[in-house]
């Protein structure tokens, strides 16, 4: 589904990532771990065309997307749910869904909206509320609902559990599992290491912009090098 080979990327002249090789297979949940500043968000930005790529190749469903514009990458079926959610605060819940509908896979807006409301019933109740009036958890649900309006084959989620109460985290993670079960591949950046590795199939840990350790989720959870990644800091 997604394949990254020899990626080096950064912002302007500042190189953040180097030597990154990563694979996400169809329907798989792949987790990206690492301390603050390790480069996790930059990795997602590189995939979605939002930072400078200095070397390497990114392919999505067999197409080279390395030099593609962000809107084209999204239109190809790769949705990015950025850190901090970045929904339109002044628009209502429903309007946020409307603007995210790109008519990619042929489903009507109404069908996709109903699918999003089925996943997150609270969004139906709050459909006419301004996004700014939603709780943090509801905003996260809206951000995921919005990503799904593009009928993606792969969704990248950047710290969806950030700032949420444990009950809501469980709910969001259950949705992530449901999406994967429905065949959508997931690339998940998470600070919550234990939960993320319970949920995921495979994980990569970054340290200072490089891959330090990778492996099947269970194996990685037990790998002492994973703790070192966090002790070493960014
Ligand atoms: P966090 O969990 O804190 O978000 P992260 O692993 O996602 O951490 P990144 O946000 O990718 O890390 O940041 C990696 C490095 O890139 C940091 O040193 C950061 O200061 C730098 N950086 C991030 N965004 C920019 C930017 N727009 N311009 C220049 N440097 C940036």
Question: Which keywords apply here?
Answer:
234 residues; alpha/beta; six-stranded mixed beta sheet; four-stranded antiparallel beta sheet; 10 strands; globular; binds adenosine-5'-triphosphate
Structural class: alpha/beta
Question: Helical element count?
Answer: 10
Terminus-to-terminus distance: 29 Å
Strand content: 25-35%
Overall form: globular
Molecules bound to protein: adenosine-5'-triphosphate
**Averaged pLDDT:** 91
Lateral arrangement of strands in the main beta sheet: 6-7-8-3-9-10
Order of helices and strands: EEEHEEHEHHHHEHEHEEHH
Strand count: 10
The main sheet comes to: 6 strands, mixed
Helix content: 25-40%
Low-pLDDT runs of 5+ residues are: none
Radius of gyration using CA atoms only: 17 Å
Give an overview of the whole structure.
By secondary structure, this protein is of the alpha/beta class. The chain contains ten helices and ten strands. A six-stranded mixed sheet has the order 6-7-8-3-9-10, sandwiched between helices. A hairpin with a 2-residue loop joins strand 4 (52-60) and strand 5 (63-64). Helix 3 (93-100) packs parallel to helix 6. The protein is globular, with a radius of gyration of 17 Å. Adenosine-5'-triphosphate is lined by residues 11, 14, 16, 34, 36-42. The site of adenosine-5'-triphosphate (ATP) has 11 residues, from strand 2 and helix 1.
List the helices and strands and how they pair.
Blueprint: E1 2-11, E2 14-24, E3 29-33, H1 40-47, E4 52-60, E5 63-64, H2 70-75, E6 78-81, H3 93-100, H4 109-119, H5 121-125, H6 136-148, E7 154-158, H7 166-181, E8 185-189, H8 193-199, E9 202-207, E10 210-216, H9 217-221, H10 224-232
Parallel strand pairs: 3-8, 3-9, 6-7, 7-8
Antiparallel strand pairs: 1-2, 1-4, 4-5, 9-10
Bound molecules: adenosine-5'-triphosphate.
The site of adenosine-5'-triphosphate has 11 residues, from strand 2 and helix 1.
